[in-house]
Amino acid sequence: MKYIKDNYNDTVQLRCVVCGVTDKFDSNEDNSYIKCTNCGKEYFGGYDEL
Questions:
Q1: For labelling alongside 45, which of 1, 5, 27, 30 has CA 20 to 30 A away?
Q2: Which range marks the domain in which residue 45 is found?
Q3: Is residue 28 part of a domain?
Q4: Tell me, what's the pLDDT at 1?
Q5: Considering only CA atoms, which of 42, 43, 37, 44 is closest in space to residue 22?
């Protein structure tokens, strides 16, 4: 019988879908809004959308 792991330690690199940068993002306090400072793309769904 296989068990699903409870704790994952993998990291994911976020990338803008428009310009492809991975390190130029601004966000509000609770990360529900993200903006790429390179191209200006806004993610109104926050990190879940990005």
A1: 5
A2: 13-50
A3: yes
A4: 57
A5: 37
42 with 35: CB under 8 angstroms? yes
pTM here is 0.72
Residue 44 lies in a domain: yes
Nearest to 22 by CA among 12, 31, 33: 12
- Residue 4 covered by a domain: no
On the 0-12 / 13-18 / 19+ scale of CB atoms within 10 A, 12 is: exposed
Number of domains in the chain: 1
Q: How far is CA 27 from CA 2, 14, 45, in A?
A: 39, 13, 11
Q: Please name the residue that has the structure tokens 């926050």.
A: 46
Residue 40 lies in a domain: yes
Which of the residues in the chain have pLDDT under 50? none
